[in-house]
Specification:
With about 280 residues, the chain is mainly α. About 70% of the residues lie in helices and about 0% in strands. The chain contains 16 helices and no strands. Helix 4 packs antiparallel against helix 5 and helix 9 packs parallel to helix 11.
Amino acid sequence: MLNVRLVPTLALLVFAPRGTPLEQATQAFQAGEYAKVLELAKANASDATDGPRLTYLAGEAELVLGAPSAAEAAFRAVLVKRPKAVPAQVGLARALIGLARFDEGEKAAAVALALDAKDAGARIAHGLALSNLGRADEAKQELAQALKADPKDPSCVRGFVEVLLRADDAPAAAEIAEGFVKARPQHPLGPFLLAWTLERDGEDAAAIEQYQHALELDPNFLDAHKNLAILAHTLSNSYQDKERVKLAFAHYERYFALGGKDPELRQTYDNLLSFKDQILGM
């Protein structure tokens, strides 16, 4: 559920000359221009030097967009050419987790850890896989170790909050989120995670405010649009609350305008569109 836009692991992206397709794609990713990332990766896939790096970045973009199958294909393509590329192995693990293939995801993350035991991304992915497999204590240990190494790392914070919420430890998750907000007040992940914990506690109005704050900090934050659309839709009281319905439509529209690919959300939105006028009384 949480595919917060973060700068991807840069081990495959270093030393890109200025103005190259790789640099353009990296900048596009950081700006939330995922369609451009995919276009650049497709157009330059045969490049002997940067092709694997672009394919890796395309995989990261597909994960953010909610297309784990496409991400899996991209990361596997990188690993064919660079079988010891830890970032691609971590990406594969995350894609498999996104596909609910948790056993495979755990094994892929374990391979990444075997390649580099100090890689934070590998440890986070391993913890997330363990969490989804119901091995909460082991998952917490993995994420605690990753977070201890870098308490301000957004990916570590995100992973730890996700693991804690899945273990029904909302107070601990809120504490981690609040600590990140204090440490990095201008980062959109902080209010996003606060919203997530508030939503879990049934504090819906406060959650909406925090999602909106996250979007003030990053208007292209895909998952904030997604979660806010779902929450407003859920709270619309069978479409009786017109303002909540309008809020839901606005964020559904923005999510898909930014390239979001979540198939379940697409079906929900298409169903809503079919009787939008009736819902809003137009």
